[in-house]
Automatic annotation (TrEMBL):
Boundaries of every DinB-like domain copy: 24-148
Name of this protein: Damage-inducible protein DinB
A family per Pfam: DinB_2
InterPro entries the UniProt entry points to: DinB-like, DinB/YfiT-like
Recorded superkingdom: Bacteria
C-alpha cells in the first residue's frame, strides 16, 4: 500500500468510515445543542462544540493555505481562541458541523487528486507538505474524536449499542 492510499484511509476514518474508533460524522449525528455546549461542572474540558470548532479551525486554515488563499484563512490569537463558539444557536451548531464535514471532504478530494509532486510541494505558511500535514491533522482529529466520545458518554448521550 502506498502512502497516499494509507493517508486516504486514515482521513476517511476520521469522518465517515468506521475503523478502530468511531468516525466523527456518526459521533455527532444525534448530538443536540444542549449536549454540544455541555461541559463537566469542574470546567476541566472543552465542550463537544468547542472541540469541533477547534478541529474546523486547523483544517480550514490548512485548506486555505493549500489553495493559496491565505488572505481568507481563519486567524486566532492563540490555541485557546481556536475553541471559541459562535452564538449558541441550533442553526449555528448545525452550520459548524456542516462546515467541518465540507472542509474535511475537500481536503480528502485534494489528496485523492494529488500527484506525487503536489503531495510534497511546499505550502505557504506551513512547515510540512500536504502528505505530512494531513497525517498530523488525521492524528489530531482522532485524539479529539476520543474526547468527544468521552464527553458524550459523560452525559449519557452515547447509545448502549452502536455499530462501532
Amino acid at each position: 500500500m502506498d502512502e497516499k492510499t494509507l493517508l486516504l484511509q486514515q482521513w476517511a476514518s476520521c469522518l465517515d468510515e468506521e475503523d478502530w474508533f468511531p468516525p466523527l460524522e456518526k459521533v455527532l449525528e444525534d448530538i443536540t445543542l444542549e449536549q454540544a455546549i455541555w461541559k463537566p461542572a469542574d470546567g476541566s474540558m472543552n465542550s463537544i462544540w468547542e472541540l469541533v470548532c477547534h478541529l474546523l479551525f486547523f483544517e480550514k486554515r490548512f485548506l486555505m493555505r493549500f489553495l493559496g488563499e491565505t488572505v481568507n484563512e481563519p486567524l486566532a490569537e492563540n490555541n485557546d481562541s481556536t475553541f471559541q463558539l459562535p452564538n449558541e444557536t441550533l442553526e449555528n451548531w448545525k452550520e459548524t458541523k456542516q462546515e467541518y464535514f465540507y472542509v474535511h471532504r475537500e481536503l480528502g478530494k485534494i489528496l485523492a487528486e494529488s500527484d506525487h509532486d503536489d503531495m510534497y510541494r511546499q505550502i505557504p505558511k506551513e512547515d510540512y507538505p500536504l502528505v505530512l500535514e494531513l497525517k498530523s491533522l488525521a492524528m489530531h482529529d482522532a485524539y479529539h474524536i476520543g474526547q468527544i466520545v468521552f464527553l458524550s458518554k459523560m452525559q449519557g448521550a452515547w447509545p448502549e449499542k452502536r455499530s462501532f
